[in-house]
Design brief:
The chain is mainly α. Helix content is about 85%, strand content about 0%.
């Protein structure tokens, strides 16, 4: 209790610590809400309660199939696959590393631990992929979508670190809007091509968001702890 009082006093006396503490509280609340939403979707998936909605939405999206649309969707799926994101992430890690090596390490951990988390979640939920009219074939499990989750983490981290390194609001805004569009079409492409249900994609987005926010939260906690310890010396 005494340590808590000292920390609160420290946070109130330090503008940086105060702002970081507020960000931590907000991040915790957002993380908990995201976790609840993901578990809710996961529960619906396990109970198969959401399958009817999934099929209705999937059939609606299938109605837009045509050779030209399929070609576009194939490009977006390629953009979100593991190899493409791996190459893009190496470029970003190198770029960030030329500015600040510590951020390059954080970026690397966020991205690749997110990929590992997706594999673990797929193993837990064991959901088979749709088998109705797929245009491509995938051998892995379905929930949550790896394309949706990994692309969300990649592009969210991309926007975050570009803002942190440049502090250019205009550039960050443009990159963020483009990222949202790309992430959306990557997820849509997976449904259109018949390799994911809509709930797989939504679950992937939520899991990616949760992981990204949790990673940034962890980093901010470390920063505040270091500030607090240095203040005590």
């Amino acid at each position: 209790m005494k340590q808590l009082k000292l920390f609160i006093k420290f946070s109130l006396n330090s503008k940086l610590a105060f702002v970081l503490s507020l960000e931590i509280i907000l991040s915790v609340l957002i993380s908990l809400a995201s976790l609840y939403l993901f578990l809710k979707i996961g529960h619906e998936v396990l109970d198969k309660d959401i399958l009817q909605i999934d099929r209705a939405l999937t059939n609606f999206i299938y109605s837009f199939r045509s050779p030209s649309v399929t070609s576009i969707m194939m490009h977006f799926t390629f953009l979100g696959n593991a190899v493409t994101l791996f190459v893009l992430s190496l470029i970003m890690i190198f770029y960030i590393g030329t500015i600040r090596k510590k951020d390059a390490v954080i970026y690397t951990v966020i991205l690749y631990s997110g990929v590992l988390l997706n594999l673990i979640l797929k193993y837990i939920y064991q959901r088979p992929r749709p088998n109705e009219f797929p245009l491509i074939h995938e051998n892995t499990l379905s929930f949550p979508s790896g394309h949706a989750m990994n692309s969300f983490v990649f592009f969210a981290a991309l926007s975050y670190f570009i803002f942190r390194e440049t502090r250019n609001v205009k550039i960050t805004f443009i990159i963020s809007i483009l990222s949202v569009i790309i992430i959306g079409f990557i997820g849509l492409s997976r449904i259109y091509l018949g390799v994911h249900y809509p709930s797989d994609v939504v679950g992937g987005y939520v899991a990616g968001f949760l992981w990204f926010v949790s990673a940034i939260l962890f980093e901010k906690i470390i920063i505040v702890k270091r500030l607090y310890k240095s203040n005590k010396k």
